[in-house]
Request: fold
Amino acid sequence: MKRRDFCATAALATGFGLAGSAHAETKWDFATAYPAINFHSKNNQQFVDDVAAATKGALKIQPHFGASLFKMPEIKRAVQTGNAQMGEFFLVSFQNEAQIFGADGLPFLVKDYDEAFKLYQAQKPYLESILDKQGQSLLYSVAWPPQSIYSNKQINSAADLKGLKWRVYSPTTARIGELVGAQPVTIQEAELSQALATGVIEGLITSSATGADNKLYEHLKYFYKVQAWIPKNAVTVNKKAFAALPKAEQDAVRKAAAAAEERGWKSSREVDARSLETLKNGGMQIIEPSAQLMGDLGKVGDVVVKEWLEKAGPDGKALLDAFNKSK
Ligand code: PCA
Reply:
């Protein structure tokens, strides 16, 4: 899908002829999975606009929101193979490929955004090296708001999750579901509303933002603010496509990416506060979880972290050590 067209319109219009003024224009596709109204999507749009402005239109990136080009689980591979030059995907969904991708989905490791950012710094060298081996380069990574529990019934302890049709998006959320005796079902964000409307799921763990984007209050009544982890999206670029750019355009992409990362983390915090209001206004009960529920989830979390460490080996341990030291 990569095109590098020679654009001579301007040259012709001003009468200078082709040879001197023709300039190359590169067009990229940017596959994303979340709706255009989502804050990651808005941040990506700003990134695209910044690149267009900095390169005076020489690098045109076309974002495709809402999983319209590829579904979320396909996006990483699409960038790897060059079927899309850029993509955004949810890191923890790829934990089976490399345990490092799941580090930011481990329960109760971080207590707030500041710690989530520190965990990211500890995780980043590993992420960069794995992605590089997969033919892509990390441009930026932005956190979702903290992950909390939505349910169609009251949840006061882990026992209340038993039998619940539990939407999952990662190996860890599936494992948690198993440990509490829920019924895990994998559903992509783009299909959430439909899964709720048809009764395929009755509860899930996700952010305030995703709850607001998908009007989850139309189907579910309870939100338990357990804030179990703060996972991230990653935006990557195909290495060959990036290498083919003139140096000035590469610099423009990196610069816009750094700005997008900073802006994205800031808007994530703001969006969390705003989305909680939206949920409340939509009729959802925002509830502080009981000590029993937090205690139960803490135990489940310990099992999950232990199992992750076993699978992640020395790199996983070094990552967590680096994070703990930086806290
Ligand atoms: N929303 C996305 C990923 C994490 C989040 O908060 C989802 O639920 O799929």
About this structure: Residues 5-22 have pLDDT under 50 and may be disordered.
